[in-house]
Amino acid sequence: MVMSRESLEHLRDYIQLTLSPSDILWLTDELMACFPKPDQLKPYTMEEINAMIDQSERDIAEGRVRDFDEVMRELEEEFAESGNIQVAEEL
Q1: Does pTM surpass 0.70?
Q2: Is residue 17 part of a domain?
Q3: In whole angstroms, what is the distance from residue 11 CA to residue 1 CA?
Q4: Which residues contact 66 (CB under 8 A, 6 or more apart)?
Q5: What is the pLDDT of residue 55?
């Protein structure tokens, strides 16, 4: 999934408005655990970078990406079903 910087900023704001500081810290730890440590990263070649860009452009052209509103709608439905988090109406 590809999200614009604007969408990511909206998601960040949404999280800050709806989660407690301790929940934000927990989420941060969970997200950080999903990625390799900086010393485990390997540099990409220009060919690899261009291939990733080409793939992203194909995904966009073929509709395999979701926009911010769709992602937020899915999150709201999931949160509403769980009953654990009350969804804010507006950011």
Answers
A1: no
A2: yes
A3: 14
A4: 1, 74
A5: 95
Tokens of 27: 């989420």
Classify residue 37: in a domain, yes or no: yes
Distance CA 52, CA 79 (A): 32
pLDDT tens figures, 40-84: 778 899 999 999 999 999 998 998 888 888 888 888 888 777 766
Cα radius of gyration (the chain):
16
Number of domains in the chain: 1
30 vs 39, residue with greater confidence: 30
Domain housing 12? 5-82
What six digits make up the tokens of 80?
């509403």
Cβ atoms of residues 15 and 24 within 8 Å: yes
Residue 91 domain-assigned? Answer: no
Q: 65, 58 in Cβ contact below 8 A?
A: no
